[in-house]
Amino acid sequence: MNNKERVLITGASGFIGTNLVDALERQNYIICNFDKAKPNKKNHDKFWFQGNLLKITDIEKAFHDFKPSVVIHLAARTDTLSDKLDDYIDNTLGSENLINCLKKTEGLNRIIITSTQYVYKSEKKPLPTRDDEYMHYTQYGQSKVITEQLTREANLNCCWTIVRPANIWGPWHLRYPIELWKIIDKGLYIHPCNSPVLRTYGYVNNVVHQIVKIIQADVTKVNRQTYYLGDIEIDSYVWLNSISRNLTGKSLRRVPSILFTIPAFIGDLLRKVGIPSPLYTARFKNMIENYPAPTAKTVSEFGVANSNLDENVRETIHWIKTDGKDLFEYWKNKSV
């Protein structure tokens, strides 16, 4: 692989994609961002090909015009708000359309298909024993199971790799700054557990580093393989407390989880009558349960850009207060 590879990224206007474009541009790759949405970062407009994965003709035109040698499939609906699989058609039919076009495209060297940690979640058996062992969490997770199955059954004639991001955070994440980080900054977050809750997070620049290393790796290491993307698992309090200390200069308060039971139940009732609530049973359960991902193999083989949590948090805070500030009313109006 060399830096003259032509890399087409689906969904590069989004969170991970924006950071990935920056990383590939620094290494002089030739880039095409296939996305129906305009890039969030102004200087990425030059890479943008406006296209929709639900329209096969859009994909065919992009492949014909750009002639990619590497395709990284990031485009997806990634929230977990719907309990209807049909609402994730971009992930299912969109991926099917892309894969059908990949099968007919000559000159491809590498393909990366992005899935999610949510294709498997089980309290009885925390980690799968095979790459094709599934127990999806949410309909978003099910949509990505379908994406993986389509990939494995496609008989693609070049090197392909499936990647499963864990809980990714960092610059250009458009939800955390107006939800979690805002709550922490206001001093309203209380951690509902005194014992460790093991989770896997991934600083976005570490994840992007891993993706780049995968497209540069020897084929024998990555062909038909599945890698979880992210950092090594940690206690969720450590991650959240780093955010708090670097935002406010204060450590987070911790209380016994039982004190959250009644407020979570009240939140359920409010949501049933259409009143939004920041705390409800499903969210509370998510806050206190272990959900690690097996990223140790990925970190061992491909490393990370920076393993220092505090430095990565400060880099994200700097982005929120500079380039990202105008994207969020709260941070735009807050004095730096």
TrEMBL record:
<dbReference type="InterPro" id="IPR036291">
    <property type="entry name" value="NAD(P)-bd_dom_sf"/>
</dbReference>
<comment type="similarity">
    <text>Belongs to the NAD(P)-dependent epimerase/dehydratase family.</text>
</comment>
<comment type="pathway">
    <text>Bacterial outer membrane biogenesis; LPS O-antigen biosynthesis.</text>
</comment>
<dbReference type="InterPro" id="IPR001509">
    <property type="entry name" value="Epimerase_deHydtase"/>
</dbReference>
<protein>
    <submittedName>
        <fullName>3 beta-hydroxysteroid dehydrogenase/delta 5--&gt;4-isomerase</fullName>
    </submittedName>
</protein>
<feature type="domain" description="NAD-dependent epimerase/dehydratase">
    <location>
        <begin position="7"/>
        <end position="230"/>
    </location>
</feature>
<dbReference type="Pfam" id="PF01370">
    <property type="entry name" value="Epimerase"/>
</dbReference>
